[in-house]
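Write out this protein's structure.
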Amino acid sequence: MDEKLDIEISRVLKAPRDIVWQAWRDPANLVQWWAPKPVVTESIKHEFYSGGGFGTLMRMEDGSEFASEGCFLQVVENEKIIFSDALSGGWRPNASPFMTAIISLEDHPEGTAYSAQVLHNSEEARQRHLDMGFFDGWGTVFEQLDSFVQQLKN
């Protein structure tokens, strides 16, 4: 990890890895926890395999929308998901890359150790992500994901 360019956050989710995987694999599940509520997420594209496209549309409380498009660079069942907005599906370059995220899942006595390492191409991009409220936003999403996987588990 490059401390000038990267940000890392991790949590323990109280569900086994295969349940956490289901929360990622199915776009109907993903939209339940992807963005901090009350933001509503719509899955536009979810080709959950290495090289597949990934797209979401997030509707903010004020009615504004934020679309993002990316590519799953690596998908290793129950272990790792790497996605980036530097590319779109089919390995096509995007015009304005911002980040690449590496999501890792490991067994933990309480469930799943879940970590996200987010890589940026400049210190300015990293700082912009921090200024956008990275830790609050991603932390809230972790809490939502943990609650959602509790529902899937039962």
